[in-house]
UniProtKB/TrEMBL annotation:
Family recorded in the similarity comment: Belongs to the MotA family.
Subcellular location: Cell membrane
Protein's membrane topology: Multi-pass membrane protein
Protein name per UniProt: Flagellar motor protein MotP
Cell wall biogenesis/degradation is among the record's keywords: no
Region of interest called Disordered, as start-end residue ranges on this chain: 252-274
Keyword terms, alphabetized: Cell membrane, Cell projection, Cilium, Flagellum, Membrane, Transmembrane, Transmembrane helix, Transport
Organism, as annotated: Oceanobacillus longus
Composition skew (Basic and acidic residues), residue ranges: 252-261
Sequence ranges assigned to domain MotA/TolQ/ExbB proton channel in this UniProt record: 106-220
Superkingdom field: Bacteria
Membrane-crossing residue ranges in chain numbering: 7-25, 31-56, 154-174, 186-205
InterPro entries the UniProt entry points to: Flag_MotA_CS (IPR000540), MotA-like (IPR047055), MotA_ExbB_proton_chnl (IPR002898)
Length: 274
């Protein structure tokens, strides 16, 4: 189940608010209007778009909206809930046989779990199941990397185009030194393009790329637990032993680990049942 990740929009909004407050506090009569310059916006945004068009194929650029949305959502699956699921599957598999797990798949939304359980039900060797699912993880990491690279490149290009705008503004200013009325607009372009590019890179693109990378690591970690759970269920491991094994992935003394142990009736005794 996916939910909105409010931290991303809150962080971006808070950053812009802090910048606006700093401008309003220190600026004179010009206020916010002094920091709005159409030519500077054209240089940074137009140059950024042009660079992205040159760097990537159209098929990759079409994924931009989907990648953007991904940074504003999070996977709501708790690791403790995932471990509970495999404990339940293990109990049913030991009680009714591995084929009975097909009925359990109706309540499972995650396609990765479904695929692994179906492979187990079909009697595929554990090593083969592990290889297939790890191949899925490798493909996932590759897809996420290619998508994240769009944001990372934007983070590189934005400040670079800001510097280009600064050079343009300085050239315009030096060419019109004899006309004092042109110095202000030229200097505004020179400075504001750098400001725009730097803000976009450090408040939007770079943090968003970092969040996407963290989400990929979290998803890969979750899938590693899923693989261990599927192999444990297929091999007929005792549910309590499987709980011990999967709980090892949770941080010690964490809330989720405590919830897992409490839900499974864990009393802190050594597992001696096989």
């Amino acid at each position: 189940m996916r939910k909105r990740d409010i931290l991303t929009p809150v962080g971006i909004t808070l950053g812009f608010i802090m910048i606006m407050l700093a401008i309003l506090t220190k600026s004179g009569t010009g206020g916010i209007a002094s920091f709005a310059d159409i030519p500077a916006i054209f240089i940074v945004i137009g140059g950024l778009i042009a660079s992205m068009l040159i760097t990537f194929k159209m098929e990759q650029l079409k994924l931009t909206s989907a990648i953007w949305k991904e940074a504003f959502h999070k996977n709501d699956m708790q690791l403790s809930e995932l471990i509970h699921l495999f404990i339940r599957l293990s109990e049913r598999a030991r009680r009714e046989g591995i084929l009975a797990l097909e009925n359990e798949l109706e309540d499972v939304e995650d396609p990765f779990i479904k695929k692994g359980i179906l492979l187990a039900v079909d009697g595929i060797e554990p090593e083969v199941i592990s290889d297939i699912l790890h191949a899925e993880i490798t493909a996932l990491e590759d897809r996420h990397y290619k998508g994240r690279m769009l944001i990372e490149k934007a983070a590189e290009y934005a400040p670079a185009w800001g510097m280009i705008g600064t050079l343009i503004g300085l050239v315009l200013m030096l060419n019109t030194l004899s006309d004092p009325s042109t110095l202000g607009p030229s200097m505004a372009v020179a400075l504001l393009t750098t400001l725009y590019g730097t803000v976009l890179a450090n408040l939007v693109f770079t943090p968003m790329a970092g969040k996407l990378e963290a989400k990929t690591e979290e998803e890969v970690f979750t899938k590693q637990i899923i693989i261990e759970g599927i192999i444990g269920v297929q091999s007929g491991q005792n549910p309590r032993i499987l709980e011990e094994k999967l709980s090892a992935f949770l941080p010690k003394d964490s809330k989720q680990r405590k919830e897992t142990e409490d839900a499974a009736g864990y009393v802190g005794e050594s597992v001696n049942e096989t």
